Structures are given as structure tokens and as C-alpha cells.
Amino acid sequence: MTDTLNARTADALQSAFGHAPDLWVQAPGRVNLIGEHTDYNDGFVLPCAIDYRTVIAVKARGDRQVRVVAADYGHAVDTFDLDAPITPHPDLQWANYVRGTVMMLAEHLAPLGLALCGADLAIAGNVPQGAGLSSSASLEVAVGQAFKALLGLDSVSQTDLALIAQRAENRFVGVNCGIMDQLISARAEAGHALLIDCRSLSGQPVHLPEAVAVMIVHSRVRRGLVGSEYNTRRTQCEAAARHYGVAALRDVDAAQLVHDRGGLDEVVFRRARHIVTENARTVDAAGALAAGDLVRLGELMAASHVSMRDDFEITHPAIDQLVEIAQQAVGHEGGARMTGGGFGGCVVVLLPDARIPDVQAAIEAAYRSPDGAPPTIWVSHAATGAGALAPAHPAT
Ligand code: GLA
Fold first, then answer.
1. Among 1.10.3720.10, 3.30.70.890, 3.20.20.70, 3.40.50.300, what is the CATH number of 209-380?
2. How far does residue 17's CA lie from ligand 1's centre (Å)?
3. Cβ(151)–Cβ(116) under 8 Å?
4. 140 CB less than 6 Å from ligand 1?
């Protein structure tokens, strides 16, 4: 799969700019196993990277121009100058992920006495877009990785790259996301999920049991209201943290949640309860996964879904139904829950490889979206994080 993306980016670079790449980099999309909306509450998340990624072919330039060709968007080209203020592109949304990341990377490097060089980039990817699988984080992290590889920026850690990518998303693209998507894309290890402490940004790789797969089922429910509802949830969580007198809901435990509840709005209380219980479930789930206890993991994933449905109210009736279908099909051999920001998007199913065909068939037979669309299903194993793909100056 990556070979095809390599070839497509090399072709795009050749036809747009007339030369072969110096190197390739890649950054994957992600799926979150458990720990939803906990990242911006300084809490815990347990995502893994997926076998779908953004690939960039990179060629250094001797000047201060950045030229970018998007193989997936009709070979559209964006050009900007590192010596002029970098502003949003008026038409090309994909270009803003590139411009934003380059700008934040340059800002990160300046105090270190380091500067970017011009480059030609060709981009192609196969992370499904609009499905909540972090295609935009994978693009941002890949752009950062491209310059890191080109300039040998060893002092820029993978965590720095994730923070730079998140800053691009927050400040340049204008989406108020947490750190989960960029961090797992930058730091994932093959065969492992990553238990991330979103306060310290420390990560503990958790080995997935042998022959366990991650099935991703797109509900085909359109992700409406994502932005506005996401921001509302953030505001409600901040209000709850203020009520409990803590820096973030991460600092509230189950006992304090109930004991100090007095005077808290009922809806805001339920939002807080989701975060407090989800943090505990996520840490438990990492333990269950490490122990190969898929029964316990399945229970925790089911409880997470109920909490997202009833307390955080970010699911959708069709997705609730899809989760039920998946849970029934998997039984006690794995688990299923909605994954990502919510209001549509995907369900994640953890299951033994041997069960993939029958679980897939059961879901395809039983589920239709409100518009009558069948689900789209991808199967992945926990993939590696961002990095260089090939030696510089590959044979032509
Ligand atoms: C989106 C955001 C993440 C995280 C999830 C919910 O994917 O980008 O930062 O908040 O929603 O867990």
C-alpha cells in the first residue's frame, strides 16, 4: 500500500516540479480504542495508529520557496515563501494544514537559532477523510516529519512534532482539538496501542495480543455539528473543573465527583461524570489489554459507549445500533464502541483475526445508515508512527 503511495508521490513530484525526491516520509491516521474527550481534560487516552497514512516525497530547494503538489486533489499546487508572512490559502483547505504546520515549525525553530529551507513536496494519502480517523493530523505530522528528515532536525522530538501539528490545527486551521491525534500519529509503535497521559505527554506502549485486529466500521452517519458540539463539550468540562476547584477534570476522582456535586448544573455534572469515569476506564483498559484480557476490555469498551451515549451525549441512534450489532457479533472475544469526536463517524471493534470474516458479514447484513447506506469497513493492525520511509537518493 505504501509502495503505491510512494510511487504516486514520486510521479506527482516529477510531473509538477521535474525532479525525483531526496526522501519520503509518512505519518499514519489513528483509531482510539478508549478514552474519548479526555485529552483536553488532561486525562488518559488509548489510541493506536492504523495502516492508512499520508506519504510525502520531499526534495530540498536552494531558495526559500515551498512548493506543494497534492496528488489526491487533481495535482493542485500551492506555493509560498518562507520569508513572507504565511497566511491561510483562500481556496485550498488541504494547503492550510501544510502552511500552518510549516509556520508553527518555523516558530518553534527560531528561538533555537534554526531555520527552515525551501522544499518541493508531493503529498498522497489513503486515510479515509471525514470519517474521524485523523487524516488531517496525519497530514500535519507528515509535513513536520518531512522537514525534520530533510534538515536532520534531531532536536525536534516526535512529541515536539505533535505539539507543532496541534498548534497548526488550533491556531491556523481553527479547530480546537486536543493532542491525542497528532501524538499517536507521531509516536505510535507497531503492534502497540499507546496509553497517553495527556498532562505529562508521557506514553506507555501497550502490546496488542497476537492475532488481534482493529476493525473500523464507518456508520455513514454524516458528522454534523462536530465543531460546535465539540466546543460546547470543552466549555462544559472547563465549567465543571472550575466548580470542583481543579485545573482540569483529570484531578477529580469518583468520590469527589459525587461529594462536591452541590450546585452543579445537571448536564454539566453528567459531562464531568463521563470524563471522570472514562479516565478510570482507560487506565483499566490498558491493563486489561496488556494482560490479554479481552473479556474485561470488551466490558470497558461497552461501558465507555454507554457513557458517551448517556452522559456526554455525543453518539447517534444509528451508531448506538451499530455498536450493539458489533457487540453481539463479537460476543466475549473482544469489544466495540464509537470512536473519535462523535456525532457520526466510526465504530471501533477489537477482535481476534479469526473472527474478522464472520463479524464483518454480520455487521454488513444487519446495519444500514439512516439514509440506507451500508457500512464501510476497514481492518487494520496497530501500525507504526511517523518516520522516514526510504533512504535518501533511492535508486531510480
Ligand atoms: C477529536 C479531537 C481529539 C479528541 C477526540 C475525542 O478526534 O481531535 O483531540 O478530543 O476528538 O476524544
1. 3.30.70.890
2. 36
3. yes
4. no
Output the pLDDT for position 396. Answer: 38
Using the predicted structure, report yes or no on whether residue 391 has a pLDDT greater than 90.
no
Residue 169 near ligand 1, beta carbon < 6 Å: no
263-289: pLDDT as tens digits: 999 999 999 999 999 999 999 999 999
36 CA from centroid of ligand 1 (Å): 7
pLDDT at 222: 81
Q: Which atom of ligand 1 is nearest to the CA of 230?
A: 11
- Measure Cα distances from 111 to 73, 105, 108, 151 in Å: 35, 11, 7, 17
* Active-site residue, selected from the candidate residues 39, 42, 120, 181: 181
The per-residue pLDDT for 393 is 42
Helix (H), strand (E), coil (C) string for 300-330: HHHHHHHHHHHCCCCCCHHHHHHHHHHHHHH
Report which ligand 1 atom has the smallest distance to the Cα of 180: 9
Distance 349 CA to ligand 1 centre (A): 18
- Closest-lying ligand 1 atom to the alpha carbon of residue 36: 12
| Residue 10 near residue 118 (C-beta atoms within 8 A) | no
Q: Please name the residues in contact with 113: beta carbons below 8 A apart, sequence gap of 6 or more.
A: none
Does residue 394 register a pLDDT over 50? no
Using one digit for the tens of pLDDT, what is the confidence trace for 180-217? 999 999 999 999 999 999 999 999 999 999 899 999 99
Q: Which of 89, 17, 24, 88 is nearest to 58 (CA)?
A: 24
181 is catalytic: yes
The verdict on the CB of residue 274 being under 6 Å from ligand 1 is no
- Check if the beta carbon of residue 182 is closer than 8 Å to that of residue 162: yes
**C-alpha 43 – ligand 1 centre gap (Å):** 12
- Taking only the tens place, the pLDDT of each residue in 66-91 is 999 999 999 999 999 999 999 999 99
Beta carbon of 144 within 6 Å of any ligand 1 atom: no
Q: How far apart are CA 209 and CA 212, in angstroms?
A: 6
pLDDT of 225 reads: 65
For the segment(s) 2-205+384-389, the CATH number from 1.20.140.10, 3.40.50.1820, 3.10.20.600, 3.30.230.10 is 3.30.230.10
